[in-house]
Amino acid sequence: QLEEEKDEDSFDMEVAVTNPEKIGKEYFFLTIFELMNRTFSVWRRFSDFLGLYEKLSVKHSLNGCIIPPPPEKSVVGMTKVKVGKDDSSSADFVERRRAALERYLQRVVCHPSLLQDPDVREFLERDELPRAVGTHTLSGAGFLKMINRASDAVSKMTIKISDSDAWFDNKLQEVESEELQLRKLHAVVDSLVNHRKELCGNTAVFAKSMAMLGNSEDNTALSRALSQLAEVEDKMETLHQEQAASDFFILAELLADYIRLLGAVRGCFEQRMKTWQRWQEAQSTLQKKREVEAKLLWANKPDKLQQAKEEITEWEGKVTQYERDFDRISVTVRKEFLRFEKQKSKDFKSQIVKYLESLLQSQQRHVKFWEAFLPEAKAIA
Amino acid sequence: TSSVRRNGPKFTQLIVGARSVSVDLNNDASLLIDIPDALCERDKVKFTVHTKTTLSSFQKPDFSVPRQHEDFIWLHDALVETEDYAGLIIPPAPPKPDFESPREKMHKLGEGEATMTKEEYTKMKQELEAEYLAVFKKTVQVHEVFLQRLSSHPILSKDRNFQIFLEYDQDLSVRRKNAKETFGSFFKNMVKSADEVIISGIKEVDDFFEQEKTFLLDYSSKIKDSTARAEKMTRSHKNVADDYIHISATLNSLSVDDNTALKKYTNVEGRVASDEELKLTELLRYYMLDIQAAKDLLYRRARALADYENSNKALDKARLKSKDITQAEEHQQQCLQKFDKLSESGKRELTSFKGRRVVAFRKNLIEMAELEIKHAKNNMALLQGCIELLKSN
């Protein structure tokens, strides 16, 4: 059944994934969702989220739906968690995972069709979910490999039936080129995060050396000023650290998410191609069957002729079915794509605003710290 | 303010305003020196040294000469090797102009030109030119400061070699080659490090110098450390700025229409990094070198003290043997005189050095804080504008 495009505002469900708690070897996350002023919450494992993705993928990807891809699996991160390493890097990892799960779930509930899906309902409502099986194959890299293999197979095909197919061709090209640019951008943002962390470390070390220099200085006012400078640089270090977190969680993760999402979009287009291919193959099979019938008419073999006629009827049915499937998936993919573009635009804008606001806040504190230092510098005599 | 004039494919003329980490405590306008512009051709930098003077010892009241970095080094070494100046702090030699970092980046940019859009390439090239400009400003600053320290010194400003440097209107490199070989100063440095071990052990007679020695030795190692840390911090800051440039260049190729905000922001990070370097890192580096020069003075004095003590021993020996007593007495007197002269001059120099250092730190720390505030406020205005624009769309 085709879904009517409902106004998304009427389905305003907010979700949150919070309170990571380690039970045994794995983390459970409190998944909270709010609908029509009522709040519900359940505990879910990471594998539960992957299991949800798998179920949705099986059901909806054939329709041309853009299924939001799940967060990446990380062997390194998970090992640390299992081993019980409780340092700052594993805390970072848990936070990264929590945020990714939240974004993933938000995307799922934003999708009007998926929200209706019984598996999604079960995910949100059932107290305890049976442990999902087979999710170990669903690593982030594996997912992308799957998509890329499919795209290699169909990349040679283009449909030239009508103008609307030109639309699909153009959009696919746009998606591919955008994915490339996002990858490039992601690499640079990654570099930014690393350099910012380096700056953090170097600032801390510099602050210490300034404090030592201040101690060594024999002019009292200058000595005091140098110590104050050391304190300012310490505060700078904190600012850099917070900014690095913003760089990562707001920008880098946004880009990583969309690189994966664009892969899913490509998957939809490929799915449409496959459907078209199936229809074309059915048409050529039908043609062959008709040729067989014609030959049999000439050869005058009534039993075989009957079978041939039955097969023709069968394949005529298939051709009709497959054509309908193709039309339906074309409509879905188009609708999905437009919805996706709208969502992407919204997402990027809101994240960029958030990022700029984080920069703004940082600069405000910058001003405060240096304005506090200035009289100290002026007091040197 | 500074501007760049481009002649041909390479970077050339640069006009800078006066901006130095050092300060002139001596408000004497009888000899004013500045470097109003410089030329960069391949590896060589040619500085235009401009002198304005009311002193009759010079042939003209207002004149300019072209000078290379090697000419500055020649002048510095000539001063260091002048016996009469043993009691003075010789201003540290300016470091060699170092364009390696922007040059390497320019090379990489050239190699990667095929993989980027014309817009990206142009933007990155612009940023690289800004980096060249920053290095340029830095090197002009340190060379200018060196000369200004000399011109404000009551004794060094009258030095004959200094005058030649300022005035001689032909190629100085010809004269340089006739001067003492640099091997001489290498040797001196070698001997000095051996001295450091021996002479630190000498018992100091004067409280002032005892305190100075302790202070300078400690401060010297701390400021060396601080300089190295500051360099690392500044370099990290530049890396962050470079990343923002890349981000901006990549955003250009994306159809995301919200990218103008980030593009504008990228320019600011770069400015902050280079201002921080000029005010803080360069300040520390300069005083690290200056303190080394002060330590050199202490060692020369300690050497003179050792010579004096040796001459005393020689005199006692001579008296015992009743042989060459007059010679020994004369030698002892000479040593004492030399030592006293060095002590007197050294005390003056070290006291004024203290004052100069405090004033320079004050000036640069104030300027740095003011620049940080200015940049942060500019950033805030920029960001607020962008955020409002995005929210209203």
UniProtKB/TrEMBL annotation, chain A:
Molecular function (Gene Ontology), one example: phosphatidylinositol binding
Signal peptide (residue range): none
Subcellular location(s) of the protein: Cell projection, Lamellipodium; Early endosome membrane
SUPFAM superfamilies assigned: BAR/IMD domain-like, PX domain
UniProt keyword list: Acetylation, Cell projection, Endosome, Membrane, Phosphoprotein, Protein transport, Transport
SMART domains the record matches: PX (SM00312)
BP GO annotations: early endosome to Golgi transport; protein transport
Topology of this chain in the membrane: Peripheral membrane protein
Residue intervals of the PX domain: 1-131
Source taxon at top rank: Eukaryota
The keyword Endoplasmic reticulum appears for this protein: no
One Pfam family matching this protein: PX
CC terms in the record's Gene Ontology section: cytosol; early endosome membrane; lamellipodium
InterPro entries linked: AH/BAR_dom_sf, PX_dom, PX_dom_sf, Vps5_C
PANTHER family: SORTING NEXIN, SORTING NEXIN-1
Family the UniProt entry places it in: Belongs to the sorting nexin family.
Protein's UniProt name: PX domain-containing protein
Biological source species: Oncorhynchus tshawytscha
Designated gene of the protein: LOC112248088
UniProtKB/TrEMBL annotation, chain B:
Gene3D superfamilies: Arfaptin homology (AH) domain/BAR domain (1.20.1270.60), Phox-like domain (3.30.1520.10)
GO annotations of cellular component type: cytosol; endosome
Tagged with keyword Transport: yes
Domain PX: start-end pairs: 1-172
Nuclease is among the record's keywords: no
GO MF annotation list: dynactin binding; phosphatidylinositol binding
InterPro entries linked: AH/BAR_dom_sf, PX_dom, PX_dom_sf, SNX5/SNX6/SNX32, Vps5_C
Keywords: Protein transport, Transport
An annotated GO BP: pinocytosis
Protein role: Involved in several stages of intracellular trafficking.
Similarity comment text for this entry: Belongs to the sorting nexin family.
Name of the featured protein: Sorting nexin
Organism: Oncorhynchus tshawytscha (Chinook salmon)
Underlying gene: SNX5
